[in-house]
Specification:
This protein is α+β, with helices and mostly antiparallel strands and 178 residues long. It contains 3 helices and 8 strands. The protein has helices at residues 2-32, 100-107, 130-138, and strands spanning 34-43, 51-66, 69-75, 80-90, 93-98, 147-150, 155-164, 167-177. A hairpin with a 2-residue loop joins strand 2 and strand 3. It is globular. The termini are far apart.
Length: 178
């Protein structure tokens, strides 16, 4: 009888633990969904961290598309663009990276080629965050990334290139969740 009670307790605790893990994996994506209101500025190249001339007010609408992928609709009076990004939890932030062909064009290989065992996020080890795991499996040290959600400040920042009439302009969006 005692053995049956111990087995029952173990099963119940396992179910709760699995439900808690599943909830925490997607919880951060649910927290970043919404509208971020801010400004777009010129920046000094994509690596430039300093804010340049303010272009104007802007908004970014963030929508979950599927597990680990969001759609970003970034717009103001002069700009209207929509793109998808993969998202990765990392401590007090959610980091973003390109998806599909954009990933391949930027980094020179398809997403998932770094996963020898094929499990994508199923092989996280040694207290890696999702972001650390993504970097270790998919990127080289000098690979650049362009955006981040700060979970403490409820902000979203993203750097990108706008090409108009053959002229490239480096822009930076900074917004706070409404």
């Amino acid at each position: 009888m005692r053995r049956i009670v111990l087995i029952a307790i173990t099963v119940v605790l396992t179910v709760f633990a699995l439900a808690a893990c599943e909830k925490s994996e997607e919880q951060f994506v649910n927290l970043i969904e919404g509208t971020y209101v801010g400004i777009i500025t010129n920046s000094e190249g994509l690596k430039g961290q300093g804010a340049g001339e303010t272009i104007g007010d802007a908004s970014a609408e963030i929508t979950k598309i599927r597990k680990g992928t969001i759609e970003v609709h970034l717009y103001n009076v002069e700009l209207d663009t929509t793109f998808m990004l993969n998202v990765y939890e990392h401590q007090d932030s959610v980091q973003v990276c390109f998806t599909g062909d954009y990933f391949e064009n930027m980094y020179g290989h398809k997403m998932g080629q770094g996963h020898i065992s094929g499990g994508m996020m199923n092989d996280i080890q040694n207290d890696e965050t999702e972001w650390m795991h993504h970097l270790n499996d998919e990127h080289e040290n000098n690979d650049e990334h362009f955006g981040v959600f700060n979970m403490l400040n409820h902000t979203f920042g993203y750097r990108f290139i706008s090409i108009e009439g053959g002229i490239s302009t480096y822009l930076k969006f900074e917004g706070k969740k409404e």
